[in-house]
Design a protein that fits this description.
Structural class: mainly alpha
Radius of gyration: 18 Å
Distance between the termini: 52 Å
Number of strands: 0
Length: 190
């Protein structure tokens, strides 16, 4: 069923995705294995339907649904794998406070997202592509590398922002890159 979510644009656009998922679950599909894919692929209605079917809300699902109190409760007991995926999801959904909490809990901004969580890019790529300027600034302040390239297209976070028409974010990232280049070229001037 998780593959259905990856190619669900027709079903989602025609408002039948949740009904289709219900039919598949009744036929024995594993709803739990699908919930994270729904979160990563921004299928909130599908995710909510899976939770109604009894899927347990974990850290990544709480981030996707902006359930801050559940996120706060789950963070101290989350595994490293759960935190890594939650970091990717919170970045994708613009969860500034959730990302800040994950950074404070030693999540590292300079690694690619986990498999199943847009692993071709970093949280900064996702954040830049979605245009979350405040979150981009937070990730950069906390050491997020602006020059890392995604593994599918070879684009930097600035490239992602430009591709998605997020001009203000792209310009902010360009300014960071220029300042870093200047500081590297003449460390006494930086």
């Amino acid at each position: 069923m998780h593959r259905l979510l990856r190619s669900a644009s027709v079903a989602g656009a025609s408002d039948v995705l949740v009904n289709l998922m219900d039919v598949l679950c009744e036929a024995g599909a594993d709803a739990g294995a699908t919930a994270r894919a729904a979160a990563v692929h921004e299928e909130r209605r599908a995710l909510e339907a899976l939770i109604r079917r009894g899927v347990r809300v974990d850290l990544a699902l709480a981030a996707a649904l902006h359930r801050f109190s559940e996120f706060v409760r789950l963070l101290p007991v989350a595994t490293g794998e759960e935190r890594h995926l939650a970091f990717a999801v919170a970045s994708q959904y613009g969860g500034v406070e959730m990302v800040r909490m994950l950074l404070d809990a030693w999540e590292y901004p300079n690694r690619y997202n986990p498999v199943g969580g847009h692993s071709h890019g970093t949280p900064l790529h996702q954040t830049a592509g979605f245009g979350y300027l405040e979150l981009v600034r937070l990730l950069v302040e906390r050491g997020g590398q602006t020059d890392w390239k995604d593994v599918l297209w070879g684009g930097t976070p600035e490239d992602w922002a430009r591709h998605e028409g997020r001009v203000e974010v792209a310009e902010s990232l360009r300014e960071v890159d220029e300042a870093m280049s200047k500081a590297t070229a003449d460390p006494l001037q930086g």
